[in-house]
Amino acid sequence: MSFLRRARAWCIAGLTATCSQGVVLAEPLEIVATTGMVADIAQHVAGDRSTVVNLLGEGVDPHLYKPVASDVRQMMAADVILYNGLHLEGRMEDVFERAAARGRFVRPVAAMVDESFLMEAEDDEGHVDPHVWMDVKAWIKATEAVALALCQADPEGCEEYRVNAAAYIGQLQQLDRYVRRVINSIPMDQRVLVTAHDAFGYFGRAYGVEVMAVQGVSTESEAGLADINALVNTLVERKIPAVFIESSISPKYIRALVEGAAARGHELIIGGELYSDAMGPAGTWQGTYIGMMDHNAGVLATALQGKVPDGGFRAVRDRLRE
């Protein structure tokens, strides 16, 4: 099945109610993207043919975010709305439906990724884990999906979108190899990633890391004392050295793990802050998707006895360009 037919099949299958028909739009495209990860793809693929607005910035949890009036106005005025989908932005779905009904071009990027990449949410039977961007190869497929969507929305710019997407995919392929190299430098028995919520399942599968979390894939769920104590027991028994906080999630559960382990005589350190559901500040390296993944790999390797090349991915990439 071609990528175009597969993307349409997502709509027909009812995985999203917001798949509106494509129309030829005047340039430049006004694109609104929900998360920074989706906006980053849009900016690379659309290039100079668009302006891209990112609704959810640094430190914002998309699971819990409810759109304000200004968000709704921006979406209703946009030509194209790109969102992650797979219920990541659960409190915004009615706005997507309204925008599609008013003729906006609305696409769920992660829901258009090849089905073979998608993982079922272990704590939510029948639903797919939305954190697709944690596997760089899956996010390459998301880049292809955005290029397809923009070609549908603006056929006249299609060749430019394809060229831009190909260039960005080349960078992502280098990033995927780099992340794999850095994670492989961590001793096998140390490759355990413990966070507050289960956002790293795709990362763990792609790069060979065991993932544990207090909460499930959505931060809307609340962890109980029994959940925390059970995880503390595992961490103590296996002598896990470090846990990690997330930039968009309260650190309360991670602190509870550290305190619980200390009460059992096991020193558990906070290995650093990871970017999960949101990227870093706009205008910084960590405020890009590539920078976010570079940062996460480096923090993990540093805390878990791995090796990080001097200068991280940027230095490696620059040497490859020479």
Entry summary:
This protein is α/β, with parallel strands linked by helices. Strands 2-1-3-4 form a 4-stranded parallel sheet, with helices on both faces. The protein has a two-stranded parallel ribbon with strand order 5-6. Strands 7-8 form a two-stranded parallel sheet.
Number of domains: 2
CATH class of the largest domain: Alpha Beta
CATH topology of the largest domain: Rossmann fold
The string of secondary-structure elements, in order, is HEHEHEHEHHEHEHEHEHH
Number of helices: 11
Query: What oligomeric state best describes the polypeptide chains here?
Result: single chain
Determine the mean pLDDT.
89
Q: Which regions have little confidence, pLDDT < 50, spanning 5+ residues?
A: 1-25
Largest sheet: spatial strand order: 2-1-3-4
Portion in beta strands: 5-15%
Shape: globular
Q: Structural class, judged by helices and strands?
A: alpha/beta
CATH architecture of the largest domain: 3-Layer(aba) Sandwich
CATH superfamily of the largest domain: Nitrogenase molybdenum iron protein domain
| Strand segment tally | 8
State the separation between the terminal residues, measured CA to CA.
39 Å
Global Rg: 20 Å
Largest sheet: 4 strands, parallel
Characterise the protein shown here:
The chain is α/β, with parallel strands linked by helices and 322 residues long. It is 44% helix and 13% strand. The strands form 3 sheets. Strands 2-1-3-4 form a 4-stranded parallel beta sheet, sandwiched between helices. The two termini are 39 Å apart.
